[in-house]
Structure formats: structure tokens, C-alpha cells
Amino acid sequence: MSVRIRDGFALLVGIFVFYTAATGPFESLIQRAVFLALVTCLGLSLYPLGKGTGWRTIGLIVDLLLAAVTISACGYIVVNYDEIMTTLPWATQLDMALTVGLVVTVLEIGRRAVGAIFPVLVIVGLLYALLGEYLPGSLGHRGFDIEFVTETIFLGDLGIWGMLTGVAATVIAAFVLFGALLLHTGGGQSFMDLAMRLGGRQKGGAAKIAIISSGLFGMISGSAVANVATTGNFTIPMMRRLGYPGPLAAAVEAVASTGGQIAPPIMGAAAFVMAEILGIAYVDVMVAAIIPAVLFYLSVFVTVHIVATRRNLKLVPEDELPAWSEILALRKVLPIIAALGGLAVGIFMGRSVATSAFYGMIALLIAFVATSAGRLSVGEMFKRVLAGVTDAGKGMVIIGVLLAGAQILVSMINMTGIGVTLSSMIVAIAGDSTVLVAIIVGLVCLIMGMGLPTTAAYVLVAAVLAPAMTAVGVEPLTAHLFVFYFATISVITPPVCVAVFVAAGIAQTNWLPAAFEAVRLGAMTYIVPFMLLLYPGMTAGGGGLAIINAVLSGLVLVVAIPALLGGQTFTGRLWLDRAMLVIVIGVALWPAFLTPMIAAMLLGGAFFVGRNMRRAAMEGGQ
Question: Which of the 8 DSSP states describes residue 243?
Fold first, then answer.
């Protein structure tokens, strides 16, 4: 019975999102309240309190009470929408009770789904709003009572019903549904088959399969941890079977899964939030992220290639790889092409992103039915589509609940002004030095993002730290991409590297060496944010010459950094080889007109010298 209830709620969420993507959302607060009511009820059924324990009966009573309070609170907003938006009502005792119940429910589901860190941060934000007037110095504020906090959180569109919840209930939800339908109608297997064929027969083939497949899955899922748990159960055992050390196998999967969130055309959910915060089109965010994403994956490929060559890792046997004829079969490629084509048509027609996702879903379903007719029964086709809708509903729980919680925290940050205060403190410490501000912000982003899903981590650091970047003259899009990348890579950065924890568990290895391998593989990701500041062309801005300079500098670093960390030799003298690579990296990072070209020439010269020395040694040996 509990499974049917859970699947029923998941289906309701999926149908609601599909309908509103097709017809357009309801009035803002109504759309958000209905969505939050559905995902919280689904969350309570997905993560039941006391499951498998002797006190499950008590847990069930608590869950039913939380569900009743949530439905009442959300229903109250729907019924009183006009009054709330036109009269700005004063908070009553009932309003305060409903607010407390709704906030407790959202935070409790967040605790069950992703752990205690994020709910604790939200609680600290609420306590700061209520008690911050008693703090000394610049961290103190004028003080806010429970009535004003209730009015901010519950009786308006700045608190829990704010922009982040709105994005979750429309754009992100539509893309989660789009991705789930794509995966369940055959796209998931097609991605895996393509990855196996492209990477399997190269050096480090199993690792390159993980990089390609996890990148493709990650663009859709938007969650590094979920991606590791999905593709990692296939790729990590394959790498282990072919002789890859456990830490390396875990690190490859964790890093590749993380990169999917920064890779266009379908980036993780945080990219949609970024577009809304900045008030720009999602396409602009996507275009700005193309060059950094390409550089990230190229660097991981190069690192894997160097490691595989040095360790002589085995190739994937030919008989385990799918044939090109099978990969390119019409029944496999047409649904994917139709889905992406429908999405592109909607975007270029100027439709909203959610409506464009609806076009993609319709095209996908038509292509799926057309290519499956005669091969699958109507019942089997319906079952797969239903599984996709249900899975999407479940996927929206974490996103919906976390963004609702994040919206509460952001509203408290804006209300108290703590974000501006912290930004001013950072600028005061670093002075006018953009690089020093960036270093401080990057370190704080890594710390604040640890243990949090990427979207929640980005929202937090964007509210508190992005203003420090713009205060020293950094363009808003560049500033947000900077904190976004650091929030993203916090999931592979020790000591709280959640993606590595999951991958190491699958690989049955110690997480600490896996984490160090992950940092080495993802080293370029720690450099890319700073390149955004040094080279405007990294975000496809500044004109053609600026873009060429940025790409050339990036390509040099893509080779030089993995070569340095992977132990690449040129002369046979370790100290000399490392010195040469450090010089190349330093020149490539120096933002001047000719330095990328000079760096490229130095790197090319190092490889040329190394090749000639190896050739001379071989001839001398003969």
C-alpha cells in the first residue's frame, strides 16, 4: 500500500509539471504552493520516519501530522492568494503556526533526504534573523520579531514562495521530467552504448567510458551523487575488473559525474537558478559555460590517458563493446534527436524554457512510439513512460524541498543584510585585489558547499559571496559562474566529498586516497574559475581575439596541468621536467596579449625536445 501511495504522489507531481509546462504556470504563489504540497507529501512517503524500526507507528503519526500541516499551509496560500498579493496582511497566530509547521516539514524532509547540514544552516539563518540584534559589532542588526519573519517567509513572494521555489516548480521540474522520460525511453542505454564505443578501445578505455557516460547522464540529472550511484554501478566494476586501482576507479567516476553539471546544453539545476537570479536567458548561461566545460573534460581525458599509459591499463575487450550498427539504429537515435530537436525549436521560437522542455517531451514521446511500434506492446510502452513520469516525480522532491529551504535562508540573508556585511568584510580584507578576493571567495565556497547538493550550495554562496566579486568590478555572470564552479567541485573536495564517498563505496576502497585522486583528475576545475577572471573570452565575450586567447591558454593548461600531476617526462630529469611545466602553466595564466601563444610554443618545445631525446636514446641503444 505504501508503495502505491508513493508512486501515486510521484505520478501526480509528474502530471502537474507536464500540464503546467504545456499550458503555462498558474499564478505564481498558487503554482508554488501546489507544487510544494505535492513534493512534500511525496517526500514524506519516500523517506518515512522510523522505517524498519519498532517505532514506525509513531513515525507514521508524525508524518501524517506533517502532511496535514503542509497541505493546510499550502491550501491557505491558494485560497488567500488575492488578499496576500494585494493587501500585505499582518501575521496572525494561525499564520505563525502554519509557517512553523511548513518550515519544520521542509527542513525535516531535507534532513532525511540529504543529511543535517543544510537544515542546520537554514535554522541558523532563522535564529540570526530573530536574535541577531544581540550580536555585537557589524554582525548585529536592528532586530526582527516573529510576526515580521512570518510575514516575510509565508505571506508574500520573498520568503518560501520566492523565486527559487518558483524556478523549482516550473523550469527545473520540467527539465527533470524531460530527462527522466529521455532516460526511461531508451536514452540511458543509448548514452552508455555510445560511451562504450567511443572510449572503450582507447588507452584508459574503461575510464573514458565513465567520463563520457557520466558526462551525458550528469547533464540531465543535475546531481553528481545521483549520477555516481547510477552510472558508477556499471563503470566502476568494469574499471576494477580491468585492473584499475580502486581509488582511481572511484575518482574517475566521481569527477566525471561532477562535470556533467557544468556541461551544456542541459546543465544542472543550478544553471536555471543562475539565469533567474541574474535575470538573463538560460541560453546566455549555457553559451558562457561551453568553453570551461570543454576544457574540464579534455583535462580529465588527458590525465586519464597519461595515467593509463604510465600504468599500462588494459583496454576494454572488443567483444564487450556494442557495434556501431546497434548504436546508430534508428530506434535508438531518433528519440534522442527528436527530444533535443523539440527543445531547440522551442528555444529558438522564443518560448519559455519550461514550454521548450514540453516540446522536447512531446517530440520524444512521438518518436518513441513510432520506433517502438511492433517491437514493444502498448502496455510495455505505457509502462516505460509511466516509470519515467514516476521517477521524475521522485527526483523533484530533493530539488523542490532544498530550493524551498534555500529560499527561506536567502530571504533571511536579504532581510538582515548579512550578505552585504560579509561581502564588505571580504573586500576590506583583500582590498581592491580581484585575485585575492577571488581566492578568499573560492576557499569559502568550498567550505560552505561541503556536504550540500550542488544547487543548494550554489544558492547559498551566490547570495553571500557573489556580491563580493561584483564589488571589485567582476561582471555579474562571471562572478556567479565563479562561485558556481567552486560550489560544484565541493562534492569532490576533501574532507566532505560526498560524490567520492559514494564512488568509493561502490569501488570498495578507502575514500581518502580516492579523494586525492579526484582532486588530481579534477585539478583543471580549480583553475577554470580563475581563468574566467583572467580571460574574458572564457565566457565567449570580448570578441573573437579574446576568445581565441582564452581557448589557446586553456588548451595549454589542459595538457600542462595533467602532465605535471601525471608525471609526464620529457628529458628524463624529474626536476627539469616539472620546472618546465610550471613555467608553461605560469605563462599561460598570465593574461597578456601574446602569453598564450608563448606558452603554447614552450609546451610544444618541451614535447619536441622530449621526443628527440627519446629517439636519440633508442638509436644509442641499438
Answer: T
Distance CA 362, CA 467 (A): 40
Name the pLDDT band for 431 (thresholds 50, 70, 90).
Answer: confident
What would the pLDDT profile of 352-379 be if each residue is shown by its tens digit?
888 988 999 999 999 999 988 888 888 8
In this structure, are residues 189 and 215 in contact, taking their beta carbons and an 8 Å threshold? no
Q: What is the CA radius of gyration of the chain?
A: 25
- What angle (nearest 5°) sits at the alpha carbon of residue 320, between those of residues 317 and 324? 105
Per DSSP, the residues of 132-190 read GGGS-GGG--S---HHHHHHHHTSSSSSTTSHHHHHIIIIIHHHHHHHHHHIIIIIHHH
Distance CA 194, CA 252 (A): 18
Neighbours of 428 (CB within 10 A): 9
- Mean pLDDT across 23-28: 90
Give me 278's grid cell.
541574474
pLDDT of residue 222: 61
Cβ-contact 185, 364 below 8 angstroms: yes
Contact 269, 397 (CB under 8 A): no
Rounded to whole angstroms, how far apart are CA atoms 207 and 211?
6
The answer to whether the peptide bond before residue 292 is cis (omega within 30 degrees of 0) is: no
The pLDDT assigned to 128 comes to 93
pTM: predicted TM-score of the whole model, two decimal places: 0.84
Q: What grid cell was written down for 575?
A: 626536476
Q: Are 353 and 174 in contact (CB under 8 A)?
A: yes
Instruction: Name residues whose C-beta falls within 8 Å of residue 204's C-beta, 6 or more positions apart in sequence.
Output: 304, 305, 307, 308, 309, 313
What distance in Å separates the CA atoms of residue 49 and residue 60, rounded to the nearest whole number? Answer: 7
Which cell numbers hold the place of 456? 543548494
Q: Specify whether the CB–CB gap between 215 and 224 falls below 8 A.
A: no
Tell me how crowded residue 90 is: count the other CB atoms within 10 A of its CB.
11
* DSSP letter for each residue of 580-594: HHHHHHHHHTS-SSS
Phi, psi at 58, each rounded to 5°:
-65, -40
